[in-house]
């Protein structure tokens, strides 16, 4: 099974009570602003600890409150593309991209560096500083960096937010290819129903 998640968490006034099981390689999480979508991703990445539940991805248990198993973030193999990208501002795009790659055998890569750059259309940006990227360019670099880190699974938090229709369509096509060509479990967070209908058949609606 690709995903077997049950997460209970309380954050201030917000209570997360989420459960989903799916064999799909891409599942979507949707719901209104403030319902806890990002907090749920943080639990899956290991950046926050649920009060109770389990997180099992591709048969690998990352968290289980019953057996008190809680893998640290760097043992989870998570490629996390944050809403605000979080590129290293002091490294050029090329250095951001190879940051993860240099820590692992290049032969283990899901896709070669050149193919990743081509898929995301970022070849002309390699010598730029992050501060000189548009929102859509930075998002594509962040996805490239996550893919090149050879993740066991990918978390995409509102990846199309703040992009215009044409840039959004380009990125959606790239995500469809990642979904179809790489054998990688993906969790896609969005509040946009049309994006979700296009990408996912398994949807966790939080409310
Ligand atoms: N560490 C924390 N302590 C207390 N409350 C928190 C904490 N982190 C998040 N929250 C609250 O939990 C709620 C859920 O936040 P979260 O960012 O997960 O929502 P979201 O569904 O991703 O929203 P958006 O769609 O706007 O990004 C919010 O009310 C937020 O203020």
UniProtKB/TrEMBL annotation:
The lineage of its organism: Bacteria, Pseudomonadati, Pseudomonadota, Alphaproteobacteria, Sphingomonadales. It comes from the Bacteria. Keywords: ATP-binding, Nucleotide-binding. SUPFAM superfamilies: P-loop containing nucleoside triphosphate hydrolases (SSF52540). This is ATP-binding cassette domain-containing protein. Residues 2-207 form the ABC transporter domain. The keyword Nucleotide-binding applies. Signal peptide: none annotated. It comes from Pontixanthobacter gangjinensis. GO terms for molecular function: ATP binding; ATP hydrolysis activity. Pfam families: ABC_tran.
